[in-house]
Amino acid sequence: MIDQELFKYSSEVASAIAENKPVVALESTVIAHGLPRPQNLDTAFRLERIVRDAGGVPATIAILGGKLCVGLNEDQLRFIAGESDIKKVSIRDLPVAIAQGWSGATTVASTIWIAYRAGLKVFATGGIGGVHRALLPGLSAAGISGSDVSADLPSLASTAIIVVCSGAKIVLDLSATREWLETYGITVVGYHCDEMPAFYSRSSGLPVDVRADSPTEVIQLFLSQQALGVERALLVTAPVPDKFEIPARELNTTLDAALKQAEVEQVSGRELTPFLLSRMAQASHGATLRTNIALLENNARVAAEIANELFA
To answer: Considering 53, 56, 168, 204, which has the largest number of Cβ atoms within 10 A of its Cβ?
Structure first.
C-alpha cells in the first residue's frame, strides 16, 4: 500500500476531498513540455479557472521535491511552467523521482497513477499517447516503430478512472491505437460524437464503443463499470470545438514535413512527440497551437461537468 506521506495535497484539494466535492485532475507535462512559453502558464491558469467556473476543484499534479503534489498553488504552477530543464516524469520514473527528491512534470500515465491513488475519479487532458506510427526509415532504425506503445495505454488498461481527452495525439498511429484500446478492454465513449476524435480534427473514421450526450450518461457508464469490477479507465473522447478544427488533409501535409525534419535531426524516444507538435505549430503559423489550447479548455470544462454529476 502506498505511503500517504509521499502525497502533498493543496489545502483546496484536501478540503474538497474531505467534503466530497468534485475534483478534476490535470496533468503538468502539457505545461512544462507540451506548450511554448508564455502560453503554457496562461493555459495552466485558464484550465484551473475553467474547472472552478464549472463548479469543480482543479488538482494539477506534479512532483515537487520528491513529493506527489495533488493541487498546485500559483507559485508552483509558475515554477513548473518556467523551468526549462524540468524533468518529464512517467510511471517508470516515479521511484527515482521520490528517492532522489526530483521536481518534475507528470505525464498522462503518471498523472493517472497518482490521481487514482489520491482518491480522484476524473482526469482531463488534451490527447493521450498511443501506438507510434511506422515512421521514416531513419527513425525506425533508431528504434521508433509502430510496435512502440506509450505508457499511457497500459495505465488506462489498469486504472478505474474517467479520462476526458480528444483522442490520441495526431502524430501517432490512430488505427493501431484504437485497436489496442479495444484489445485491452478500454471502453471508448464519444462525447457528442460517433467517431473517436483525432486530436486537432473532430473525426478519425474510427468508431467509439458508445455515444454519450450528457454527463449523466457518462456517469451511468462509469458506475456500471464499477459495479462489474472492471479495472479499466472509461475513456471519454470529446471533439475540439468546430471553429478550431483543422482539416485532416492539411494536417497530414504539415505532419509529413515534421516527420522528415525529425529524421534529419535524429529526434526519437520521449522527445519525438513534443518535437513533432512544436514543428507543426510553427508550420501552421500557430493554428495547431490554438487548436491544442482550445481542446484542452473544452476537455477541462467537460471533465468538470462530469465530476459535478458524479458527486451530485
So the answer is: 168
pLDDT at 143 (0 to 100): 41
Give pLDDT, residue 139: 40
The reported pLDDT for the residue numbered 297 is 98
Instruction: Show Cβ contacts of residue 180 under 8 Å, excluding neighbours closer than 6 positions.
Output: 130, 131, 149, 153
Residue 49's SS3 state is helix
The x, y and z cell numbers of residue 139, run together, are 527513425
Q: Which of 83, 81, 56, 61 has its CA nearest to residue 71?
A: 61
Q: How far apart are CA 125 and CA 128, in angstroms?
A: 7
Mean pLDDT of the chain: 91
SS3 content of the chain, % helix, strand, coil (to 5): 50, 15, 35
Strands 7-9 and 23-26: unpaired
Please report, for residues 26, 56, 61, 64, 105, the alpha-carbon distance to residue 44 in angstroms, rounded to integers and kept in the order given: 9, 15, 11, 17, 13
Model confidence over 83-123: pLDDT tens digits?
778 999 999 999 999 999 999 999 999 999 999 999 999 99
Q: Provide the annotated active-site residues.
A: 27, 169
Look at residue 306 in the predicted model and tell me its pLDDT: 98
**pTM metric for this prediction:** 0.92
Grid cell in block for residue 93: 520514473
Q: For residue 62, which of 118, 144, 21, 140 has the smallest C-alpha distance?
A: 118
DSSP string, 185-225: TPEEEEET-SB--BTTBS--SPBPSEEE-SHHHHHHHHHHH
